[in-house]
Amino acid sequence: MEVVTGRELYESLSKDELIDLLMADSKNIVAMDGVWFQSVEKDHGMDEAMHHDEEAWKRYTVTEARRIKKFLGLSEKPGLEGLMKALPLRVVDRANDTTVEMIDGKVLYKVVTCRVQEARTKKNMPLHPCKSAAVFEYGYFAATIDERIKYRCVSCYPDLCDSCKDCACCWEFYIEDNQ
Q1: pTM here?
Q2: Residue 110: φ, ψ to 5°
Q3: What angle do CA 156, 39, 43 make, to 5 degrees?
Q4: Which of 41, 74, 107, 135 could form a disulfide with 173 if both were Cys (CB 3.0 to 4.6 A apart)?
């Protein structure tokens, strides 16, 4: 009987197959996040589900940022350039369509299409009030990449901005001049 390890299997895959697997895994993680959230939401209501969502993102996002920072070989304070490299590698945002750009010395990050909101819409569920958890998700991520980085939510449900109709949510990151 032949025994094959996961690593051996991964090494046998082509680059395109690995990319496809990576993208499928990202979607699977978003689905798992939604499954646990909807379970709590169904049994205990939206407020309780949001509380646990916020607590999960406070912890998870720091771990993810540390690993991405190490993977990229970023310095202790890589600035906004480091953040621009790191944001697209986040597992949740890898599953979504996102853009990241530098405008006037600030990073503007958009989730163009959000799998979570699209899934809830297809199921005729109310939109996920993600802003309260996303402030931890993006704020803690950015601060872990570089403690000097600050953020501002430009638009995120339920606080949507008219100037961000082309995306699900939009975040601005910056470093204050005196830092």
Answers
A1: 0.90
A2: -125, 135
A3: 105
A4: 107
